[in-house]
Amino acid sequence: MKIATGEHCQNKVIFKQLFQANSIDICQIDSARVLGVNENLAILLMAAKFDVMVCPHAGGVGLCEYVQHLSMWDYLACSGTMENRMIEFVDHLHEHFVEPCRIEQGHYMMPTAPGYSIEMVEETLKDYRFPLGKVWREASWRRG
Question: Are 57 and 63 in contact (CB under 8 A)?
């Protein structure tokens, strides 16, 4: 049985310790939890060095949009293979992003716009702004 973990890890130091202890089989990096692009890339490089499979964690608001770039970078610049590579996908909340991720035949498609694909739709930002946004003003818990 393989051990998949890492979505709770905050930085490359923790991942390095997991890799050195040979205590992780699948690296589930959470791109929003670690400190930026460079930290994510360092973790992917260490995973390659230690021959640890990578499956970025996705599913929260914008995580699929974030991690598509990590997997593509891993394929193009690090591993050069899709063997033993996977990426989570949850099909919800994409409508809140200007450039939502796209899936075709079970694969993430390369984004067509520059950037990290996480710019949110202006209406979403306005509606969910706390405490004055429409979602908070109309919340059922406030009425009753």
Answer: yes
Contact predicate 120/98, CB 8 Å: yes
Distance CA 54, CA 25 (A): 9
Side-chain half-sphere exposure of 128, counting CA atoms within 13 A: 8
* b/e map 19-49, b = 16+ CB within 10 Å: beeeebebbbbbbbbbeeeebbbbbbebbbe
Q: Classify 32 as helix, strand or coil.
A: coil
Q: What's the CA gap between 117 and 110, in Å, rounded?
A: 11
Residue 47: both structure tokens together: 């995973």
pLDDT single digits (tens) 91-123: 999 999 999 999 999 889 999 988 889 999 999
Number of helices followed by number of strands (H, E) in the chain: 6, 5
pTM recorded for the entire structure: 0.83
Structure tokens at 134: 């429409």
